[in-house]
Amino acid sequence: MTDAQLAYLVLRLGTGINFFLHGLVRLPKLSAFATGLAKGFQDTWLPESVAKAFAYCLPFAEASVGLLLLIGLFTRWAAFGAGLIIVALLFGTCLKEEWSTAGLQMTYLLVIYFLIAHRSNNAVALDKRHS
């Protein structure tokens, strides 16, 4: 295994754990999480019902893409899904004018870019298809 393949594995596993646990820890308290997230948008033009619906879906999406990244299955699409999650979160963060959080989310996008752009180094995965 090359250095690039080892580096890719560690980055994919770390990103997978991050997304998987973000979703998993929110599931037992899903209603409280959704209510809290929606309240955070009360001073924006985003309707509370839209924010709350998103919040109910978010943990399932995070856990799903995280698990797929952890096991290396459908890596391309799992990373793309993770990117879409971050884009949606970035939209909300910018609505709330939380610029430091937006900067952190841009860092997530760079990691996701790397995972997609360098899939040729995805040597230890259930899914070794690179198309």
Describe the protein's topology.
Elements: H1 3-26, H2 30-39, H3 48-71, H4 75-95, H5 99-117
Structural overview:
The chain has 131 residues and is an all-alpha fold. The protein has one domain (3-121). It is built from five helices and no strands. The protein has helices spanning 3-26, 30-39, 48-71, 75-95, 99-117. α1 (3-26) packs antiparallel against α3 (48-71) and α4 packs antiparallel against α5 (99-117). The longest helix has 24 residues, at 3-26. The two termini are 21 Å apart. The model has no long low-confidence stretch (mean pLDDT 96).
What is the C-alpha radius of gyration, as a whole number of Å?
A: 16 Å
- Which runs of at least 5 residues are low in confidence (pLDDT < 50)? none
The biggest sheet amounts to: none
How far apart the termini lie comes to 21 Å
Strand tally:
0
Helix fraction?
A: over 70%
Oligomeric state = single chain
Question: What shape does the CA trace take?
Answer: elongated
Portion of residues in beta strands equals: under 5%
Tally of helical segments:
5
Which features would summarize this protein structure in a list?
about 130 residues; mainly alpha; about 75% helix; about 0% strand; elongated
Concise description?
By secondary structure, the protein is mainly α. Helix content is 75%, strand content 0%.
